[in-house]
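Our consortium's second objective concerns turning raw sequence data into structural hypotheses that experimental partners can test. To show how far this objective has progressed, the report includes one record in full. It was chosen at random from the queue rather than selected for favorable results. The single chain below, 206 residues long, was entered without modification.
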Amino acid sequence: MKGVSFERLLDLASSYGYGFLFLVSVAENIFLLGFVVPGDVAVVLAGGLAAWARLELGSVLLAVVAGVLVGANVSFWIGRRGGTALIERWGERFLVDKSRVERVEIYFSQHGAKTVFLASFVSGLKNLVPAVAGASRMSVGRFLIYNAAGSTVRAAGLIALGYVFGANLPKAFVWAGRFNVWLLGAVAVLLVFLAVRAVRKRRRLR
């Protein structure tokens, strides 16, 4: 779906409304499938359609958040059932190298809840980390709470971006791209900081 044009997505979102947004949000958050689904573009478009009064803002948010949570939970159970071996094996087929999966696993083992929350903001991680959470045997309740918190904030932010730039959606997409880059950098820095702090704390205890 990455090759789908802006005009086609706009047409689909306008024609099928909340059902389309729900399905795209589900697909974008399923393990590996999310790498080829333009969910962020569809969500920003939905915010624009709400600004044009073609969709209702609250219903857009509800459809997107519901879809994100369903997709993330599917990924969680894929990881729970298949384990780390499945994640690494199938990740390679989608050009997700083993080192990337290993880095996520290391961060997760040290900061599971924080990683789930922060990864829900970042494209390329938000469909991978839930699977790692499942494989790592994280409790369902803990995963649901942190994933729902992060996913809701992120969805609201992208919808608001489309709503504010409703008259100039291409500009909204530029800002959405920058938003993802900034978030990825911020998350990487934060996780490295937390890992270093944990190592220093263990050394002091020794």
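The partners drew two points from this record. The radius of gyration is 17 Å. DSSP finds seven helices and no strands in the chain. Both points have been shared with the crystallography group to help prioritize constructs.
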